[in-house]
Design goal:
The chain is built from eleven helices and 22 strands. By secondary structure, it is an alpha+beta fold.
Amino acid sequence: MLIKGGDAVSTEIRLGELTIPIPEGFDIVDDSWDRVLHTAGDLPSTDTLPALTDPAADHGDDALADRRADVEEKHRRVVQFLDETGYEALVLGRADSVAWFTSGGDLGQGLASDPSSVLLYVNRHCRAVITDNVQSARVFEEEVPGLGFQLKERIWYDNPEQVASELGHNKRVATDNGLNQWPNEMDRLRALRVSLTKFERQRFRELGRTLAVAVEATCRNFHPGEHEAHVAGHLAHRLIREGVVPVDLRVASDDRLARYRQPTFKAAPIRKHAIIAATGRRYGLCASVTRIVSFGPIDSAFRAAHSLAAMVEATYIYFSRPGETVSGVYRRARRIYEKYNHGHEWTLDYQGFLTGYSPREKMLLPESPCVLGPNLAICWSPSVGPVRCEDTVVIDERGFEVVTAAQRWPMLDVMVKGFVIPRPSILER
């Protein structure tokens, strides 16, 4: 608490049994109020921060058993890849590849780095972690405990590529990064991981809910006039508190919404509208979501643009099903743009991506002959003028699941082929 000069009348402060008089002309300023802590309200109903693994445990708990089974499934896929391609071993050195194979190991060199802090050596019979003496204890106690990995440890100043070379000596080895001039098979390896396992789908649900709650709470709790960067900070705080790494944060206000289709946050005050978008990562998996907030009544042009974007997104979602081509999905969505005299809008912005252990595993292109398969995570994000609609869905033979479904938010019902698809509307404050 601070006391500063002002025009206040004489008063006093009581601290326990002690009474301190305040002279005339001074004010009491309470500096204990913290805006970030204040706006960090609106917590999820349950704590989603991942718990640490007990290194002294016998690793027999159900959660770890499920994760071990997931790693075994990844190993099975790699063995199938080796059999089909004639390789004898695989070396993984990208952070997203390592997170995939270890079923969520947080082993990047930094929050957003491509290289992993370890290498994985996998053949038909074993899987090994190549790491140094600085990392090994944490890796095996916190990231891969009880998951069946062998340790290949080196001193921190020795070259990790040398250890990989010795393990792969006189063998046909594939990599995800061209290590040691071995073939880079990242495109083929990416195909192994885009089809989600049952374990990954549950993690996606938990991540999506946490992400949606954080974005929507941020929309409800900032004030007119706050800068975009301040709002991005509030959102980052909410995500990190729940163990979600903010891979991408976008806050755009007012006239910046129409001028830039992929804006970043700046020191621009938010007066009327704001689009708040986030891509978050937890256990290696990435999901994206966008919400829109308006201070005061929403003008008709803005609402019409949002309604069209919601119809296009609902069309993308409805027709995204196993066996359908990407170009076929695009063809149907483009008809909606054309029907409402916005036939060029889809050319002005990215429309969608396959997502997973990378925010953009594969860009979905309008003429792509790619056939959608089951258990794919897709982020469709069409924009119309100043608005964007974006959620992450997982598709299978039964239909689609919106993993970033709105939690406490106004909704808009969109009818596609007689089927109602609820889409997030605009929050009016």
